[in-house]
């Protein structure tokens, strides 16, 4: 079984789910990918277009955090899709999205830091 491709290994498990569920899983995967692309664009945009912040070098750090978050999220999106598809095929409950709290709190933290730094920079 080691020579089989990953789609063949996936199809060998369980039974084919209702196509509507597989399509919904695929749409969720694409939503994670869109979010990863938005994080990448935000990081690039922050570095390219944002004014200097109150703390020198912090803009580059925040931009790098956003880009790395986009890279990490895009890598996790496929694993999430695969785990969900396996659960659908085996009629198990869908796995919880472990990255969702990190993503939402992380974006909120970066936005708050940027807001504070931009306000401080404009007060000078």
UniProtKB/TrEMBL annotation:
Topology in membrane = Multi-pass membrane protein
What stretch or stretches form a coiled coil here?
none
Protein name (record):
YidH family protein
- InterPro entries reported for this sequence: DUF202 (IPR003807), IM_YidH-like (IPR052053)
The cellular location(s) given in this protein's UniProt record come to: Cell membrane
Organism superkingdom: Bacteria
Main location class: membrane
Which residue spans traverse the membrane? 29-49, 61-82, 102-123
Entry keyword set:
Cell membrane, Membrane, Transmembrane, Transmembrane helix
Which stretches make up the DUF202 domain? 20-86
